[in-house]
């Protein structure tokens, strides 16, 4: 494995499985992933194509702000993170249950 492939393998953390992401997958062939905060759209596209062997049509990213939470007496903050909506070309699909 080349060093570029190793870097691309570390871009994706996990798929996000929720009711909203399941609807996006069924209706518009989009899949949602939690990704590295410093990842670019091109890195995310190459990473998904490498990991799952599919062709990516487009990538949309958004930064999710961490919530302010109380931990006993003190107030803390959860970490910010990045989410990516990956739209696949027609004819391609990812089976997250088997991946």
Automatic annotation (TrEMBL):
Signal peptide: none annotated. It comes from the Bacteria. Keywords: Ribonucleoprotein, Ribosomal protein, RNA-binding, rRNA-binding. Pfam families: Ribosomal_L23. One of its GO terms (biological process) is translation. GO terms for cellular component: ribonucleoprotein complex; ribosome. One of its GO terms (molecular function) is rRNA binding. InterPro entries: Nucleotide-bd_a/b_plait_sf, Ribosomal_uL23-like, Ribosomal_uL23/eL15/eS24_sf. HAMAP family: Ribosomal_uL23_B (MF_01369_B). Belongs to the universal ribosomal protein uL23 family. One of the early assembly proteins it binds 23S rRNA. One of the proteins that surrounds the polypeptide exit tunnel on the outside of the ribosome. Forms the main docking site for trigger factor binding to the ribosome. Part of the 50S ribosomal subunit. Contacts protein L29, and trigger factor when it is bound to the ribosome. This is Large ribosomal subunit protein uL23. It comes from Methylomonas paludis.
